[in-house]
Amino acid sequence: MAYFNHAFCKAWLAKGADPGDGTATSALTAGQFGLVDGRTWLTDAAADIAGAKHLAYLVGGNYHATDNIGNNPGHGGYQESIKSKGINFNYISRLGVAEVVPAAQATASLSVGSTCAPCGENLFVRADVKGSPALRFLNHNAYAIGDSSGDAAANGGPLPGLCCVDGQDYLDPAVALATSIQMILADPITSPFIAEGSNVSGIALGGVTGTGYSTATGVATTGGTGSGLTVDITASGDISAVAVANPGSGYTTGDVITIVQGGGASDNETATLTVTAAGVIVSGGSNPGVYTIAEILDGTYTPSTDPVGDGVSASVNVVGAFVGTSFNDCSFDTRDFYNKEPVSIILSVMDETGNPCNDCGVATATPGQMAQTQGETVLRDLLLTERYAQNPFNQGNRDSSRIREIEGFDPILAAVDRTKLYRVYYLQHSVPRLNNPSGTFDNDQYLYSVYVDEDDTAAVTNLDALWGEIETQCAAVGNYTVDIDTGL
After folding, report:
1. Do 123 and 261 sit in the same domain of this protein?
2. CA gap 323, 342 in Å, rounded
3. Both 232 and 293 in a single domain?
């Protein structure tokens, strides 16, 4: 008879501060989490439990508000604290902490030069959207083609500056590019997934002007929701003026950034960005700068009639704009779609025959980042743990919401903010087990996950300290070193 390894998972949602040594498991309130001595059933320090050679238990207070489900006196104990299996520090095989990773949109940019839009020809731009959100929504690859001739249905009327005047050889690349991208953003296939990007179009110096600065160009910055912003500063000790050098991408109005120059903390300067949603960057000509697509096409921007002589070039930025499905707690179902995977965007220039144009246009793309770990995931793991405890989660029936209210699941649903991101603490406990038929040893694996809201400072502090204590004892009791993962 073969023996198969057992694998067991359990999850907790921890809230608030350390309950303190000597707290009984029955006294733990909803979300309170601690390490418990298996002999006394009181919370205690890892060193004390290991020194006494007792088993330790991870224990969290239960979110069930009543001690029975459905007011059935034949059932009880649902308010009992949630406990792990007994933990021997010698058998902890892995500890881990998964840091919070916020979501990031995918971005794509396309730059064209002054000779990319000859008079009498069209500049064609193709945008491809890849990834499971697009495939799920459309069931086929999503792409759209825009061209510099314009589309009245997309822009609402004639476009200025698209007709060449006598003696003009090339269209202004900013106008040609903006027109093409406008068509793509209005296309019904790609519009759910692509939006105009945001580049810094202005910056205002904050009230603090810093010390230790000197006049310089292209000074790096940190902070904000975007990247790549550099600034030109005028300074003699403190900063007196600042201007955008490289607008970067992905910034949001109101972002607070730090200007970095020099090596000390006193050299840091905080400034507030004044940002508008501007997707087109124009270089050269009489009015370079950062413009929205609308500003390029409504006459705010003055096109060049000699872009080659004026040295005009332009680039456009777009971002992935997919939004996943979300439901309220009353209709919550573990089968609800909540995938937040960002789409990938690819921009390219085509010639009039539909072939790639290899000698005009430079395209770049930055992949997006999925958020880890979302409240949606946390709630599903907690409900899985409830199933291990034989507390079924009712779903799929017309009266499921009412049944869940009766059975006491509402406090669990309400405990998780599904819009938040959670820090995760992992402990893997590997217990040797003699496989009698073969005479060999095998292992039962237990994986414990503790979720903490990233903004719950007290709970984060508690779990950081607790995992540090466990790590110290693991290293002390065995002739091995526990793997400590600081991220996924």
Report:
1. no
2. 9
3. no
Q: Quote the domain boundaries for residue 88.
A: 7-100+374-485
More confident residue, 277 or 410: 410
In whole angstroms, give the CA distance from residue 324 to residue 370.
12
> Considering the entire predicted model, what is its pTM?
0.76
For residue range 343-395, list pLDDT tens digits in order: 889 999 987 777 888 778 889 888 888 888 889 899 999 998 888 777 888 88
CA distance 16 to 36: 17
Residues 96, 128, single domain; the answer is no
Under 8 Å between Cβ of 460 and 98: no
CA-to-CA distance for 28 and 43, rounded, in angstroms?
A: 10
Of the three residues 274, 309, 336, the one that is the final residue of a domain is 274
Same domain, 186 and 94: no
Q: What is the H or E stretch that residue 176 is in?
A: helix 173-186
Q: Is residue 56 classed as helix, strand or coil in its secondary structure?
A: strand
Chain-centroid distance, C-alpha 32: 27
- Other Cβ atoms within 10 Å of 1 Cβ, number: 6
Residues 251-304: pLDDT tens digits?
766 677 778 775 444 445 566 656 555 788 888 888 888 888 888 888 888 898
Amino acid found at 241: A
